[in-house]
Specification:
The protein contains 21 helices and 18 strands. By secondary structure, the protein is α/β, with parallel strands linked by helices. The two termini are 41 Å apart.
C-alpha cells in the first residue's frame, strides 16, 4: 500500500467540494481519475502531494497516509522545468546523486594510490566498494542510455541536446517535463493531462513505456483511448464523492450505467413500499379496530433507511447533425496536387502528387505526426491553400461545414448570441437561445464576449453553429480538443449517427476507433490509405512491419523465394548486409570476452589477497569500470545492428 485515504473532506469558502473520500493506491495500480471540470480532481491530487490541506469531520475523522520512503512524482499542467538549463543538463538532474557518486569514485581511484597509511587506504577502499555497489545497483552505467531512450520516445530525437529550455514551445516543454519525470522513476507517478501536445507516435510510445512502469500511476486525462489502454481502475469524482470501478475506461462506462440502473430501481421499489405503507396508515389510523395495525405500520415506516434519489445525472449537451439534400456518390477527387505552405524563403512543399478519393457516407480520418501537414490538407481541399499542379474536384450538391481547430472564424469581440445572429440573421433571439441552450450555453453566458469563453465553451459554440449550417460534408480539425468527457461522448455519438460524409483530423484515438471507416496516414514519404478503424489500422501497420522484417531476413525454408528476393537487391545492398552480419559476429565475440573478463575481475576484487593491496585493488576497480562501460557500448551497437 502506497497511499491510504479515509473519510477525507474538503471545503472551499464554506462550500463542500469533496465528501467522505476513501481509497487506497497499491503498488502497480494504474488509476484513471475522471470527473467533470471543477469536481475536485486537481484538489485531490494536491492533497495527495501535501500541497493542500484536507478537512476533518466534527468527530475528528479524516486522514491520508503515505507509506514510508514512498517517492511521488507529479506532472502538473505547467512544466516545472528549470528554463535556463539545456535539455541535456535538465535530463541529468534526476541522476544527480548517481553522477556525484561517480565523480567521488573517480576521486577515490586517484587517492587510493597516494597514501601509505594502511588505515587510510582501507577506509578509502571500503568507501569505494560501498559507492561502487550503490552505483551499479542503481544502473549508473546506463544513465546516458536511459536519457537517450526517453528523449527519443518523447519526440526529441532530432533536437540539439544543448538547446536552452526557455527557447522551447509550450508543447515541447510539456513533453520534456514528462521525459524528466519518467527518468526520475518515482514510486507513485501522478500525470495531469499528459497527452496534451503529443502526436500519435509519441502517444503510442508513452503507452508502451507506462505499461511496463515499475511503480503505481494516477492519470487525469480526457484521452479515453489512453485510459482504456493503461488503467486497471477508474476513480470517478461525482457529486462530491469518489466511486471506484475496476477495469479500464470502457469497463467503467458499462459499470456506471449498470449502477445507475440499479440505484434507480432500488429507489423506485422503496418509494412504492413507502407509498403503500403511508396509504395504509392514512386509511386505518382513525379507525379503532385498525389503529394498532396502523401504529405498527408507522413503526415499520420510521425504521426504513431512506435511499436518496440518484443525483448522479448531469445534463449533457445535445448535438444533432443533419443535412437537407444528398450529394452525388463521388464526393471528392484530388489528383496529383502539390501541398505547399509559407511564402518566400519560408516556402515549403509538404506533399507532391497528393491523391485522395472520398465516397459519399465515408468517415475518413487523417492522421500523422505534428507538423506533417494534416490541417493544411483540409485547407487545400477547400481551396483555402492554392496549388500549382493537379486538380481538386468536389461532387455536385456538396455543402461543407468546417470546424477549424483554432476557431479563428469566430469574432472575439462579438457576444455569443450576436456571433450566431451574424451568420443566421433571420433567426429570432428565442431560436438562437434554444440552439445555444442545447450545447449548455445558457442564461448570461449568451451575453459573454466570445474572447472570454473557455476553450470548451468555444468548441460548443462552433458545434451549435455547425448544426445550423446543415452541411452534408463535415470537415473537422481536432473537434474534441478542450472538451470534457461527457461532451466528447455526446459529440462522438452525434458523429456516428450522422449519415453524411466526414473528413476528420484528430489525435483522439478513441474517436478515431469508434468513427472511422478509413484511415489516411500522412508521412514524409507520402500518403497511404487503410480501411477500417484505428485498431484495424494498427493491425495492418503491424502486419506491414512484420512482412518487411520477414522479407529482409534469411529464409532457409524457401530458397526459391530467397533467390527471387536477391534478384531485386543491388550488389551494394547485398555487400552492406554481409558487412552488417560480419560486424554482428565480431561484436558478439567481443561481448563474450568482455563478460568473461568482467566476471574474472569481480572474482579477483573479492579475494582477501587483493583486499590488502590497495593500489592493485584501485587499478582493478578502474579496469572493471572501464570494461563495464565498454560492454554497455558494445551491447548498444549490437542492438542497433540487429
Amino acid at each position: 500500500m502506497l497511499v491510504n485515504c479515509e473519510n477525507l473532506y474538503k471545503y472551499f469558502g464554506g462550500e463542500l467540494l469533496l465528501s467522505d473520500i476513501n481509497f487506497t493506491v497499491e503498488d502497480k495500480d494504474v488509476i484513471g481519475l475522471v470527473g467533470q471540470n471543477g469536481c475536485g480532481k486537481s484538489t485531490l491530487l494536491k492533497i495527495i502531494m501535501g500541497d493542500v490541506d484536507f478537512d476533518k469531520t466534527p468527530d475528528g475523522k479524516g486522514s491520508i497516509s503515505i507509506a514510508n520512503k514512498v517517492s511521488i512524482g507529479f506532472l502538473a499542467q505547467n512544466s516545472g522545468l528549470e528554463s535556463s538549463n539545456s535539455i541535456k543538463d535538465e535530463m541529468k538532474r534526476p541522476f544527480e546523486k548517481l553522477i556525484n557518486t561517480y565523480h567521488r569514485m573517480k576521486e577515490l581511484e586517484k587517492s587510493m594510490g597516494s597514501f601509505d597509511d594502511d588505515n587510510t587506504k582501507k577506509k578509502l577502499s571500503d568507501e569505494y566498494a560501498e559507492l561502487s555497489s550503490y552505483f551499479e545497483s542503481n544502473d549508473g552505467y546506463r544513465i546516458d542510455v536511459k536519457i537517450s531512450t526517453v528523449l527519443n520516445g518523447m519526440g526529441f530525437k532530432d533536437f540539439d541536446a544543448d538547446r536552452i529550455i526557455d527557447n522551447l514551445s509550450g508543447g515541447e516543454k510539456t513533453r520534456l517535463a514528462i521525459a524528466k519525470l519518467l527518468l526520475e522513476e518515482p514510486d507513485l507517478l501522478i500525470l495531469d493531462e499528459p497527452t496534451n501536445h503529443l502526436d500519435l507516435e509519441t502517444l503510442a510510445w508513452l503507452e508502451d513505456y507506462l505499461k511496463s512502469y515499475k511503480g503505481a500511476i494516477i492519470i487525469v486525462s480526457h484521452d479515453r483511448y489512453f485510459l482504456d489502454k493503461l488503467c486497471s481502475k477508474i476513480f470517478e469524482i461525482e457529486n462530491k464523492r469518489l466511486t471506484i470501478y475496476k477495469g479500464n475506461y470502457s469497463s467503467y462506462l458499462v459499470q456506471k450505467e449498470m449502477n445507475l440502473e440499479r440505484q434507480n430501481k432500488e429507489y423506485e421499489i422503496q418509494q412504492k413500499e413507502i407509498a403503500k405503507l403511508e396509504d395504509y396508515i392514512a386509511k386505518n389510523k382513525v379507525r379503532a379496530s385498525t389503529a394498532n395495525m396502523a401504529k405498527s405500520r408507522q413503526h415499520m415506516l420510521d425504521k426504513i433507511e431512506r435511499i436518496d434519489r440518484p443525483t448522479n445525472y448531469i445534463k449533457p449537451p445535445k448535438i444533432r447533425l443533419q443535412y437537407d439534400y444528398e450529394p452525388t456518390k463521388d464526393i471528392l477527387t484530388v489528383e496529383d496536387c502539390d501541398l505547399t505552405v509559407g511564402d518566400g524563403t519560408d516556402k515549403k512543399t509538404l506533399l507532391e502528387r497528393f491523391r485522395l478519393e472520398v465516397k459519399r457516407g465515408e468517415k475518413v480520418s487523417i492522421i500523422g505526426r505534428n507538423g506533417i501537414g494534416k490541417t493544411s490538407i483540409l485547407k487545400l481541399i477547400q481551396g483555402k491553400i492554392e496549388h500549382s499542379k493537379g486538380r481538386i474536384q468536389w461532387a455536385n450538391n456538396v455543402k461543407i461545414a468546417y470546424f477549424e481547430q483554432e476557431n479563428t472564424s469566430l469574432d472575439k469581440r462579438n457576444t455569443v448570441i450576436d456571433e450566431v445572429h451574424k451568420r443566421f440573421p433571420r433567426m429570432t433571439d428565442e431560436q438562437v437561445r434554444k440552439v445555444l441552450g442545447s450545447v449548455l450555453l445558457t442564461g448570461d453566458d449568451v451575453f459573454k464576449q466570445v474572447g472570454v469563453l473557455s476553450g470548451g465553451e468555444r468548441v460548443k459554440l462552433c458545434f451549435a453553429i455547425l448544426t445550423l449550417i446543415r452541411g452534408n460534408v463535415l470537415i473537422l480539425d481536432e473537434p474534441t480538443n478542450h472538451l470534457d468527457l461527457i461532451t466528447k461522448e455526446v459529440l462522438e455519438q452525434a458523429l456516428i449517427e450522422y449519415e453524411g460524409t466526414i473528413i476528420l483530423v484528430s489525435h483522439d484515438r478513441y474517436l478515431l476507433n469508434k468513427l472511422s471507416t478509413r484511415i489516411i496516414e500522412v508521412t514524409e514519404s507520402g500518403v497511404k490509405s487503410y480501411k477500417g478503424t484505428y485498431d484495424d489500422y494498427l493491425k495492418q501497420k503491424s502486419s506491414e512491419i512484420y512482412q518487411k522484417e520477414k522479407s529482409s531476413s534469411p529464409q532457409t525454408e524457401k530458397p526459391k523465394q530467397d533467390h527471387r528476393n536477391k534478384q531485386y537487391r543491388t550488389k551494394q545492398q547485398r555487400a552492406a548486409d554481409v558487412k552488417r552480419k560480419q560486424l554482428i559476429k565480431e561484436l558478439e565475440a567481443e561481448i563474450e570476452l568482455l563478460e568473461k573478463s568482467i566476471s574474472q575481475l569481480e572474482a579477483e576484487i573479492s579475494t582477501p589477497e587483493l583486499a590488502g593491496d590497495y593500489e592493485l585493488c584501485a587499478d582493478k576497480c578502474r579496469e572493471l569500470e572501464e570494461k563495464k562501460r565498454l560492454l554497455d557500448n558494445r551491447l548498444e551497437e549490437w542492438a542497433e545492428l540487429e
